[in-house]
Amino acid sequence: MDLDRKVLRLARNNAQVRRFMTAPGIGPVTALCFLATIDDPARFKRSRSVGAYAGLTTRRYASGEIDWTGRISKCGDKMLRSYLYEAANMLLTRVAKWSALKGWGIRLAKRSGLRKAKVAVARKLAVIL
Fold it and tell me: What is the pLDDT of residue 39?
């Protein structure tokens, strides 16, 4: 109980964390973890690089005629990746308010399955934040 209050106090006192929490599905713990892991967003050339930094992009293998994309690379911070995945899960399954990101994730889930949609929404959340 006391630890929850400390986390909420830290989240309330930081303007950047409060801005992160405006994204649907992102709570104080995920926002603080994102801030601690990414630290300075200016070190990334493009916002899409943040998803790759968290290990949420597909692995690629290319050699001669062979070229395939596999599962996610799982490089980077495991805690941030799991928090973003959970935030995407909450957005797709629990958050009642509609958003463009949720609509995109639901359409993707119908096409290719809920697990892949959660990973894709988590990658988009990393880019948005």
Answer: 85
